[in-house]
Specification:
The protein has 317 residues and is mostly beta strands. The protein has a single domain, classed as Pectate Lyase C-like. The protein contains 3 helices and 28 strands. The strands form 4 sheets. The chain has an 11-stranded parallel beta sheet with strand order 1-2-5-8-11-14-17-20-23-25-26, covered by helices on one side. Strands 3-6-9-12-15-18-21-24 form an 8-stranded parallel beta sheet, with no helix packed on it. The protein has a 7-stranded parallel beta sheet with strand order 4-7-10-13-16-19-22. 48% of the residues are buried.
Length: 317
């Protein structure tokens, strides 16, 4: 099917596009489905990806908002590529459009150690990911700019594997460090004290195979908070690093609130990190942080295939 434009609002039923490698869908490749959507679309599009391994390097363009890419469960729809080099050129999936949703996908860059190799780049505003697996080694998730929400996602890497300058809420996510010694989980890039960006991890879990830091400052005013998060003994006692720039100790904001587990002990933390009070932690712990109540939307249960066809659900489609 070739998707068409409509004058109706994005609140109307989304168009359903099916991707199936066996040929039983509308397209065999995910990028073909994305390309079929008209630029500056004023309808939402739900791209349903049938189970399979999709070896594709994908781009959701800036002029294509309101797109959902959805598998049925994380291990069924696997988007994979191997690339390394300049961070803005390496991503397996680059999301540049606003109001994007990713559901039940595995997004991986299989390059491995030794170079920057982004799996997912999120540079569009108002992007949400649910039940996704995001996998690489160095610079896994380029959480670049905009307001973002991650729910029940599994994110794995070794070096600065969640980095960027967005304002993002990670809710009930699992972070797994592959660092053998002292790799950083986060490298947040806030550039001024007035900039409203931060990474916040709430009710998350941290595991790993060696030893890791909670974060280090990519830019001078880096801001990261961990709240009610389980930390295994993979986390080094000091918790944070100044990236060889002691001046940043006065400008970064690194906080911890009611975290638990053997890696959450505050007694060995660097003196320039913070144990937050309930009042200090509150702004970082709800969807209000990302204005989420204004743009996060429920998963649709009815779809349009054509102007005359309504699909009630995805079963058997």
């Amino acid at each position: 099917m070739a998707a068409s434009s409509s004058s109706s609002s994005v609140d109307s039923l989304p168009f359903l596009i099916r991707v199936d490698q066996s040929g039983n869908g509308d397209y065999k490749k995910i990028q073909e489905a994305i390309d079929s959507i008209p630029s500056n679309n004023n309808n939402s599009f739900f791209i349903w990806i049938k189970p399979g391994i999709y070896s594709e390097k994908l781009v959701v363009p800036a002029d294509k908002p309101f797109i959902t890419l959805s598998g049925t469960k994380p291990n069924s729809a696997i988007i994979t590529w191997s690339n390394s080099g300049e961070i803005y050129q390496t991503a397996t999936l680059s999301v540049l459009g606003s109001n994007f949703v990713g559901r039940f996908l595995t997004i991986q860059n299989t390059h491995g150690a030794g170079a920057k190799a982004v799996a997912l780049q999120v540079s569009g505003d108002k992007a949400a990911f649910y039940g996704c697996r995001i996998l690489s080694y160095q610079d896994t998730l380029l959480d670049d700019i905009g307001r973002h929400y991650y729910h029940s996602c599994y994110i794995e890497g070794a070096t600065d594997f969640i980095f960027g300058n967005s304002i993002s809420l990670f809710d009930k996510c699992h972070l797994n460090s592959l660092s053998p010694q002292d790799g950083a989980i986060t490298a947040q890039g806030r550039i001024s004290p007035t900039e409203n960006t931060a990474f916040s991890f709430v009710d998350c879990k941290i595991t790993g195979v060696g030893h890791a830091l909670l974060g280090r400052p990519w830019k001078d005013y880096s801001r990261v908070v961990f709240a009610r998060t389980y930390m295994s003994n993979v986390i080094l006692p000091q918790g944070w690093d100044d990236w060889n720039d002691p001046a940043r100790q006065r400008t970064v904001f690194y906080g911890q609130y009611r975290c638990y587990g053997p890696g959450a002990n505050l007694s060995g933390r660097v003196g320039w990190s913070h144990e937050l009070s309930s009042e200090e932690a509150a702004p970082f712990m709800t969807k209000t942080m990302i204005d989420g109540l204004d743009w996060l939307r429920p998963t649709p249960s009815r779809f349009r295939r054509t102007s005359a066809t309504i699909v009630e659900n995805l079963d058997g489609v």
